[in-house]
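Q: Is it fine to ask for two folds in a single conversation?
A: Yes, each is treated on its own. Send the first.
Q: Here.
A: Result:
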Amino acid sequence: MTIDGITPGKVLRPESIDELSQALRAESGAVVPLGAATQTCFGNPLHRADCVLDLTGLSRITEYNPADLTIHVEAGVTLGQLQHALRENNQFLPLDPWNGPQATIGGIAAANAQGPFRAAGTIRDWIIGMKVVHVDGRISKTGGRVVKNVTGYDLAKLYTGSLGTLAVVAEISLKLRARFARTATAIVRCENAAAAGRLLSAIRHSPLSPVSCEWVGPENTVWLRFGEHPSAVDWQIRNLPAADWKIIEGADESAEWEKLRRQYHELGSVMLRVIGLPSTVSEIVSEYQPHAWIAHVMNGIVLMSVSTGDEIRAIRSRYRVVVEKAPAEMRREAGTFAPAPAEYELMKKMKEAFDPEGRLNPGRHVDGERRN
């Protein structure tokens, strides 16, 4: 196993949270928590890796309360495993990260991994509690096991997206929702980017409420997905802006979104997450003219392929940019997050408080973007 060009000295595979705690207590070097390894190209390159903690053995659903719409799972449970368990009660967790159903819940939380299904937020919005193991082996809890709780500081939001650099996520408590009674997807190919921009503006200013709204280039297709009561889905389809829409449902719909997932992975070896406003999506695409892109139109995020560090710096001069995927050398040169000075200092202090010796995933987060 090699991560960012580094081969760890050993791999440990704990089968329980207690074994995970014992492993961390016994280790003195750099520790790399790992789930399904679907996000190893995200984050700054590792500085060192003495030991990998393979968390896929923590794969139990510890408690499921369908009546309360809550579930509690260990970090190694995959999204596919979770959704399968919820299906018999007609419930689901409204997430569809680009890394797919094979991604672990712990990994999704650690990276705050996201996909086209944005109307319901990200995993951060569905977590109600966590159990984590600290670098010295201590086990702590944050949040609770019910939707309405006021148990201390909401540290789960801090751990989510921290790439395993503050503590190792061991168990997650999640709230759920009922499955949509019906979903349908409308797809149309526009003549050019300007035509797509006009159509997207009309959609944003309409009463439509898609659960996904994607603009995919360079082919300039617009994808809308609706999920709700069947009559509400019917109403939205009837009120689509005038265009040659193709409406798909059922197995065909799932297959089309799987094609888009593959297209995401084919965007290129260097991909940026450019963060603007919904009103600036067309401007971002027209100004920087990426070779390929997928834009989340309703929240202003554009995933785009680029080739050089100079392009990254040029876009960062105007917009917040996260490097979504890139070879280690490119991430080392450009920095994944490029936080503002005040943000950097705050996150650096947080890292030092939770991991004073810098042993958890060293270099992956802000500690990989040191400032002189």
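Q: Second one now.
A: Result:
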Amino acid sequence: MKKCLLLIAASIALFAAPSQPKLFSPIGAASNEVIDLSPTPCDARCLERLLKEEKEFSFAARYDKANDDGRFSADYQRLATFLNLAMPRVNGERIAVLIPSESIGRYSVIVSNSVSAYLLSKGKPFEMRVFDSVDEKPDSLDRALKEIERAGFNRALAALTVEGAKTAASMNSRVELYVPTVNRNEIYSAPDNMYFGGIDYPKQLEALSQYANRFRTFVLSEPSALSQKITAAADAILPMPASRVMINDPRVNFSQLFKTHKIGTGASILLNTQPVRTSMALSQITFNDIRIASALSTQMNYNPLLLTLPQSDDVKNFYIASAIGPGNMTLRDLNQLLRNDLRFDWTAYSSSAMAAMISQRNGGDYAPRVELFGLEMKENQLQYPIKVYQIKNARFVLAPPPPKSPVNQTLPPSE
């Protein structure tokens, strides 16, 4: 047994690569085999002892599905998943995952790991199959959907972009699609068998606007598609058009930027920037003694980096909207093992919630509520309660209720 472990450790060390986002290879992953070299059979008591002694490889090698009365199938399934063992098709939970790996890049790994963690948390045999369409061209998606149907799946979790969701919506496939990456409002028309779990950014902006000087707001944004989408939504939420400030230079001088755009006392700033740049902006506001009404941000900055990078004075008037709710502890831990963070990663959270809904419906439960997450499906869109947070003592805490009077009436005159 020790020799086996040393051999595996040596193999891992030899082929290990630096930690970085990975894409699916067109070549299928190799499966492993564990061989039972013992001449004597291993009964239930023997298998139980191996598990108790944490001899996982010996357990996997000596497990015989044909002689199992159901007591050890979940343990074997768990080990088989982590060790990528070759195994027969199981009579248990089955979930299909549609992933256009070139279109969504690193998110493909987050989505598939989220579904794996959810299935593992149930402690029962399961089969998860990933169908990689590579891109979101009509022919590619049509081919993948037909493969899913031929494999006997009625439903699939589909990690698509907005454009991919529009293409899939036009196909009228018989496979029910659950799209955790797109909000229903982003699609003009979709069939009844298509469900969505993406963020409603306008709702988050409405919640944040209660903490803003809505008549003197600046929007700091980046060229990314997400940043521009939020900026466009802000124009529809605020009663007066916000002053837009685009940050193109990665070495931007925030002190000079604030002077150039006359961002001064009493203003509110909507930060549609990534966490590191958001932290830099907040620090410079403090350093330049700009007494803003508030700094605001949506889900894109509900990130643990904001708990460590800025100082406490930098975030005292910082408000962040988030739709991530409390999660199951076992599910969180399993996601952590697979390098997902269910507490802060929106893609992991929404994918897990949609996987839970697929599982419910596979079991014949068509209730609109996802019990594990306490979420409702309404008009084919998962509804997420929006909460506004502040940062206190390196933690996200619920913000106090917004002021009853408009913020712009309670501020000193602008500079």
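Q: Anything structural to flag on that second result?
A: Two points. The two ends are 74 Å apart (CA to CA). The chain has 15 helices and 15 strands.
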